[in-house]
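Treating backbone geometry as a discrete language has practical consequences that deserve illustration. The sequence in question and its structure tokens are set out directly beneath this paragraph.
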Amino acid sequence: MTRQESFKVRVRARMEKTGERYMAARRVLLEQAAKADRRRPWASEPEVSDDAVRAATGRRWDDWVDVLEAWPGADDGHPAIAAHLAAEHGLDGWWSQQVTGGFERITGRRLPFERPDGTFTAGRSKTVGVPAAELRSALLDDEARGDLFPGERTELLSDPGAKAIRIGIGPGVAHFTVDAKDDGRARVSVSHRRLTTYDDVEVWQFYWVDWLAALEDA
């Protein structure tokens, strides 16, 4: 039996055991295999997969951690690491940022959802049965916004014509994008930025899950 055929047998065995669909069972087994190949424990997962970083940069995450931990400036902060990766390893601006962030997550220098400036971001997306124009109008109107966010003080921070609507709420700023679907529904994405603590992320992740569910029910 080839390695590929053996893996398919394991996928089907997991499907029978868990009731998962093929792709879900396959993804879990691939993730388990990736973790088994790691040379060190990871404090948290990078935003970019091991396969993606290797395809783009020629190195896996463990290899990049080895490279950066051997560099004397590894503790000099995010901008210094990103600049080093660009100057000495030829990574472009986007990948130097991604590799820096992944290194910080793996080594515990940065918590999940933490941004380079030390703030945190929570986010959720959902397609809801509300016309996009109607929802945008409500987000931009002070009185209607009070109905959308009962019990919360909000402040419109962006120009009404902006693609992303920025609203101050809680300990941060929520960025909303509302895109119309062909069937009359709307795809709503919320990125709640500038949260001050890791605990804020959990609180507001649940808040946005409930808010989007309530929006769909309405």
